[in-house]
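Revision sheet: structure tokens.
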Amino acid sequence: MVVVVVLLGASRAEGLGARAPELRFSRKHSEARLGAAYRAAVRNLMVVNTVPIKESADAGSYDQAGLITTPPGTFIRAGGGYDQPWTRDASVNSWNAGNLLEPVVARNTLWAVVKREKNGRLIVQQDKEWWDQIIWVTAAWKHYEVTGNAAFLGRAYQTAVDTLQADREKHFNDHYGLFEGPAFLNDGIAGYPAPPADAKESRGSFVLDYKGADKMMVLSTNCLYVSAYRSAAKMARALGRPAKEVAALDGQANALAARIRERFWIANQGRFGYLIHGVGPLQGKLEDYQESSGQAFAILFGVATPEQAHSILSHVKLLPHGIPDVYPSFARYSLDRPGRHNAIVWPMVEGYWGDAAARAGDTAAFAHAMSGLAELSDDSGGHFYEIYNGVSGRPDGGWQTGHHWQSQPDQTWSATAYLRMVYFDLFGMRFHPDGIEFAPTLPRGWGDVSLVGVHYRGAVLTIRLKGAGDTVKSFRLDGRKMAKAMIPGTLKGPHVVEIVLR
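Predicted:
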């Protein structure tokens, strides 16, 4: 029996328009948990957190690049507790799901964190949290892969190369061959051992207020630079830039990836370490904590070799309700009193981890990540909170600077993390400039599943998965058996994709 669920029936009146595909599971238990979480995630992104663009006292104008499209005049904010998009959040949410579900809004969101300089050049806005801005380049390339928007690509490439050049001039350590700066997620001092922290976190919550924090070299951030260079090289290739220009960008990516493997890999632990101190008495020392977003990025961006990827999947530590941000607990924290960026579960990291597991061929780890995040949403009333306690599974903002923080409700990247696993992993949608390649991962016991009403460029797709596993047995487009599990980006109108797995 196929359970048909209409996604938020009054979708147009509620702001979803026609772009939200319906997820349909054939088995009731999958529909009740996985399907319900999907609908909650879509609502979080497209109803709760897609909002009109207004001037902000903190951020000023969101159209510093002069590229916001009105209508719709909306963008994706960071969440129920955060009205701004911010560079990191804007990039994550556009990449995870916005590019597919609401491409014009996602494009607005990406441009909202870019400024135009006096000379007319575009650059990602430069602020005090400079180390995480480079994820914008990856998100921008992914936007082009989904939409095929050539006008966007030209501007995005200029933004990418100017931002990379500025960051390299200011924050590249020639001795180590790595980029300096804190961790991708961890802007709070609770995410770091002492030093750079101190036992009482006496200088406040912001990581850069601590001596030496700006000179750290961190796994996640350096992996993001690898992806940024590779994404910029792909942009250059797509734009027909000179081969020398493309090769230079690819060369930077390859050199950095090699240096990460050399500097961060811990053979006897079967995974990468967390950070290398850049100054002080610990200069050059690798902290061997597990930074989970860094492990995931190493797999997703091809920094880890295939052997290293399988080793990481075998050796990472999980908490009962997900993968922890950084593990184990620092001396000033514990599982009973977790740090805000320490042994605690951020759903956004869970999404990247599930994606990495699926792409590395670990169906069980992927199933655990996706079903675990669905459970967290279901158990918190159909919401996606910012942070969860890894032991109890309850929303928990963790401890930092001596007090217990709130876990914000309706956090957008927590919801888009779940959507990422649905689109990129369960249905295995691999976007390319000329079409979509499919490499689904359907765990045993979930039953057959369909995604109905996927708006992709000029086409509207129904995608049906049957069987189980991650090996494609047969692939049909509109009933015709195809030699490859791919569809072209030139399709127009309604089409049906049927995939049988074994």
